[in-house]
Batch of 4 targets.
Target 1
Amino acid sequence: MVSPATTFTLDQLPVEILKRIASFTTAETAFSLIYCNKKLYSACYDPFVFRAIIENLNGHSPKTQGAWDIPFLPHTTPASTLARYAIADFKARSWRHLPRINRGQATYHCDSTHLKWAPHLATLGHPFVKELDLVSYVPLLRNMQITRQQLQGLLYVLQGAMLSHDVQESPVDIFTSGEFGDLVGQDFTTPEYLNVVIALTRCQKRSNDPRLTLEPPRAEKIPLSRMVNNPTPPFSAIDGLSDCYLKTVTSKEFIETGEWVGYYSYGSSLTRSPSFDFPMEKIKLRVRSTTSNESISDADGVAAAQPSTVLHISGRGEDNVGKFRILGDIHPDGRAPLVKTYEQGFGWNWETKMTPWGLMGFWGAEEDGSRHGWVWLWKKEWSR
């Protein structure tokens, strides 16, 4: 005699098994379970579950196999924060198919909702930037009703994508007008460094000179997630994305570790297609001394939490012109006014800033505000 089948519900399983099941789902599925009842909420709304969901990749694209590097999320991170990252990761991984408008495939409606997660994940080196279809994405982005502040956040996404694509195939022409055009008069305390990437990409694309084969850094070789300090979680305000690397990139250890390389251009206007001289190489930077500034009260009488420390640096390197020396300061906000002087006795002022992509800016500032060209130094180990 066959006994009647025993029925049971999911929430009758032990909590440990429920956690395990949830950890192999997607973030959206985990939240569906969480909203079912109190037991599933207690089991699934757990830091272990959301961390495991991120690390298990949700069955993601073969292009980005290997876990997203998340050392910036310590094991003490609460479930609420990990849940934000898991949902953002899910959206980014799903977005890898999109948009594909120019390829005859399904159209994706790109709108301002992705501003809530895309810039944040880009600052942390999320692999989704490798799969952006820039030719389709940038025109859609231009049609979005976004603020200047939001645009600055998205520049991290765009620059990461530029550095993640083959330099010989990057569609640089799509960036040469509108918001992504010439930014010579920009405030260089903002993260608008995309143009130097575009200019170098364009120059290398059209040049056959073997002396210009030092390629710019590749995004996946830059340890972004290990450089970030107190990252702003996804679905938060975009404020502060440009500041989360400052503690690392303005440190003595970062500046002095490894060899720096890079280029400088003649001209900074993209419409005039600036050329680049041969690479600057064998650059070693050293911190000579530091200066601590006293805390200063603002207009409301509130003093800064900590005094700021300016690093006085020196360095030596060589390029096509000859051997040179670099002297200057690196401020806590990343500003780096430097002077490059050749052994022959002449030199140029640099107005640059330490960024997660390296030291970027202009050289040869004139009284009328114009500059002679771009300059970009990065760690040699970051090159392709």
Note: The chain is about 30% helix and 20% strand.
Target 2
Amino acid sequence: MLSWGEMAQLWGKALGQTVRFREVTVEHFKKRFPVDGEELLSANYSAEFGFAGRDPAVLEPKDLGFSERPQDVKDWFGQQDWSTVLDVSTDMTLQS
């Protein structure tokens, strides 16, 4: 499982950009991104309780014999069109 910070780093590498992750208050986030609902709540929940809600019965990929594959995540990030999210034109080629 990747942390938010690790995902941010992989996203930045895939876009060839410097990316930093930092926690902010809900109020700060809403000023920058005026959204409510599931997206905001799921980020808060996973930040506090983890993606599985600290439930010891939840199996993770490693419990099933899968190794972590952060490179696959980077590849997926690089294959997406982020121009509408970032409101910029970007070259979507992967950077090594």
Note: Residues 89-96 have pLDDT under 50 and may be disordered.
Target 3
Amino acid sequence: MDGYVRIKDIAERQRISRDYLVQLAIGLKNADLIRSAPGVGGGYTLPRPPGQVSVLDVVEASIGRVHIVDCLGEEPGCDHTETCSARVIWKIANDKLVESFRGVTLADMHTMSKSDM
């Protein structure tokens, strides 16, 4: 990506809260998915081409590993994790979601339209 973009401009363009973006930027910066520069002409930029950054990269940098139910996390959410038959279905669904996120890059998102849904 060429140049730096200010959080304020991203918030306006995407119609989301500036404060929310500031919080997201912390995780993205820690994961080296974005870089920042202070001052006039500063802001945020991608250190890699958008085609090399997956949606999974962004999601995991923002909220951690993807677990659609607690029992798939590192700390099981209930006492029935080992015997729960529904857990198998949740695992399959979670794996498909992760693969979907892994298969879409920021460049793909830029070119997607509502008709791709």
Note: Helices lie at 7-14, 18-30, 55-63, 86-102, 106-111.
Target 4
Amino acid sequence: MPNLIVNTTDDHMRHINYARLSCAWVLLLGLFGCATSVDVSQVNINNPLNELKMLKENLQKARQEHVSVLSPRWFKTASQNINKANKLSSDGNTAGDFVTAIATAKQALNRANHFAKVAAVEIAPAIAARDAAIKARVPELYPSEFEIAEQRFSDLARYIEQDSVKTARNETRQVQSRYQELKIRAIKEHKMGDARKLIKMAEKQSAHRYVPTTLDVAKKKLKATDEYIEKKPHGPDVQRRADDLLKAARHLKIAMDTVSAWSRLKLEDVFVSMEDRIISIQKLASGAKDRNMNQSLEEHFHTIEENIKSRLESQKFLNEEVTRLQGELKVANKEMKSLSEVKRKRQEEQKFQAKFQRVAELFNPNEAEIYRQGTTLLVRLKGMNFEVGKSYILPHHYPILNKVQKAIRIFGTQRAVIEGHTDSTGGTAQNKVLSQQRADAVMAYLVNNGAMDPNNITSIGYGPDKPIAPNTSNAGRKLNRRIDVVLLVDN
């Protein structure tokens, strides 16, 4: 696969033309700003703080839908004015400049959503290619080349914002090709390269003698993947085939290591080792204290399977019980509406504080910090970190996440957002991808363990965009590398 080549002459002319276009756009914006005024009539001046709250939620939703990428100029304008309004409200100013900032933000966000919808249609091939490149870890593997492609993608988004749809549409193919070349390069050099190394290593270790069937499966997948990419380098199945190949190669290594180790043992030693481990698992699953020596390995496996089935049934009953209790809670909430508003709010506040206290007592200071933000609860997982550049959860962090599950059940919340954050070290695009992958890992853990319905939990990777401490010191950067679990509490 040839390296990504940049035509410097074409690029030079492109940037000259774009600079001229940008100057014209700035002049138009200036004229537009002078000729028109912000429409403040769309702001409910009787409850401006609620307007700000709704606007923040809409901005968050737009970010999740990648509006910040598809319409960067208008999204940035909306974000800046929301921050301005937020500061004014903190200073006690909820009129005049505050209302103007809210109105400006609303108009800008509407424009951003409009252009994002246009971009989703007009430059759809480039968007799909970009998503595929990110999934193939291109930002991490080739950060400088990815940044070049990102700049070209940003040009497409800006053309859309300037109503130069035809120009954006004409240049979409070139941007799409850049992302696709990087994706294929990443798959061939890294994912398939790693698989080839594992297969060659197994062959050198006489895999044909110890695990011939597993070796054959891996080699056939390698050949089939090579042939598919040769015929369809940008086919829809490239990523899946490469993933399957790497899984097969890794499984080959595990099989080779295991069988090779066993070949140096007596058959009886292998049996005793397996039996000891199986019995340990069985005792853990059943809670039994004594080992049953009168079962075959097959019978031990069957016992473990039955224990698992029993636990699944128990979990199903627990879920049904939770559903029943939630139904009763809804009935109780309806009855509470008949109470006076003041008394109801007092009771809700007391319940919230009691639950807040219970959650706070779950964690020690080194594990997490608990904050209340209106009707939301923020669990900042201080004690949870990841290996450098990795997104998988280390086993010794499971107890902290189990406490998060308890917090979710204590509050009875049905909605949650997992936020991933990094420090400012490294490239912004790479950090955002990594923070998203880490947030996804925590979300998957909570869903797989039955703590949340997958339809009611989302994840967002902010990268370095939301620091809570300066990135100028090791201590500050450590604080910024974090996972925040936001529980949206329904009183």
Note: The mean pLDDT is 82.
